[in-house]
Amino acid sequence: MPDYEHIKAVYQTSLYKNILHEINGVVFPFSERWQRVGISLSGGADSALMAVLLCSIITQKLYTSEVHIITNIRCWKTRPWQKQNSLDVFHWLVDNFPTIKFTRHENFIAPDLEWGSKGPNIMDEYGKMKSGNQIELRAHAEYVAHTEKLDAWFCAVTKNPDKEFDERLLDRDVLIDTIGDKTLEKLIKPHMGGYACHPFTYVQKDWIVAQFKKLGIMDLFSLTRSCEGDNQTYPEVFGDLDYKTYVPGSPVPVCGKCFWCKEREWGVANSDKE
Length: 274
What we know:
35% of the residues are buried. The protein has a single domain (4-273), classed as Rossmann fold (3-Layer(aba) Sandwich), CATH 3.40.50. With 274 residues, the protein is α/β, with parallel strands linked by helices. The protein has nine helices and ten strands. The chain is globular, with a radius of gyration of 18 Å.
């Protein structure tokens, strides 16, 4: 676990000190006044756990918050199973939190806008270099936040593992800033009339997997998918599996070679140390 004592101290001296909920060392801001909350849900382990923890806060505290699930359909031609993963997680949430009102928002991202070999080559409206799909992900969340008048929106991006892997995303190599305001800004900030929250900014995959085990929800973990491989990148693994041949709900192999597979394997292997 990163230096979360420092992070907690930063939160405790901020405007958010009265809306904090700590779960196994990680702090989640969540106000009883937040009646409409958004969660970006990909079908991966990080966003699935984020949704579970936030829904648990709502039910345990008897809050009346509605949850808006924000999902983006990506790589539909080469990875059509990703939609199924997000739906499986969504239905699990609905079944396990029956007192919460859920609304699902689905967006489509054209494959031509995906990262591919181009990398972050577009400057967004905030002056940051991003890939097309990154811009779409953020823009869709902002659109839902505005149209649904969300009080807060949560994203589950995590920190890179300590171990070096190829293809690691450099913007996930975050360090805790000695200046409290800069650390806090990476976790929560006012945005689109509400708050953009990133509680997992300094959390790594080993902590994520450990929570699935501690909560006894490895059945949910098995529904999630991290692999970003397909028949374009690893034809020896996926063969002719694509949108023309995939049957929703059927088993899909993992490549075991991409960064996301390696990160998941690292998280599982180190989760018992948490």
